[in-house]
Write a structure and sequence with these properties.
This protein is mainly α and about 120 residues long. The protein is about 65% helix and about 0% strand. It has four helices and no strands. Helix 3 runs antiparallel to helix 4. It is flat.
Length: about 120
């Protein structure tokens, strides 16, 4: 039974991806202009290489934001059902928050939140 469900989900996903790509190919405009082939359409000609080094702090900050943002999203289902589970839910989210605080303290201690 689970194998049939798995095959159905995979086939549905493939059909939706192929259908989306086909609709995009069929409905997209086909005008080509030399200016549209440029990296930017601001009217200013580009100079030099467009491959510029990016400060690693941007990536680290984005990963930290994503980590804490996703963990905050996990608090919403807990808030919806907290009255049904009583003190067990409170203990569980307390433990979850302690892990979050330790993660934040670790990142802070390692200097991940400082912009150098």
């Amino acid at each position: 039974m689970y194998f049939t469900l798995f095959i159905t989900v995979v086939l549905t996903g493939l059909v939706l991806v192929v259908a989306g790509a086909a609709v995009t190919i069929l409905l997209s405009p086909r005008t080509y202009n030399r200016v549209k082939g440029e990296p930017y359409e601001s009217g200013v000609p580009t100079r030099g290489s467009s491959w510029l080094p990016v400060h690693i702090g941007y990536y680290l900050f984005a990963l930290l934001f994503l980590m804490f943002d996703v963990e905050t999203v996990f608090l919403y289902p807990w808030a919806v059902v907290v009255r049904q589970f009583g003190s067990a839910a409170l203990f569980t989210v307390g433990f979850f928050m302690v892990v979050l605080v330790f993660g934040l303290a670790y990142a802070w201690r390692k200097g991940a939140l400082e912009w150098r």
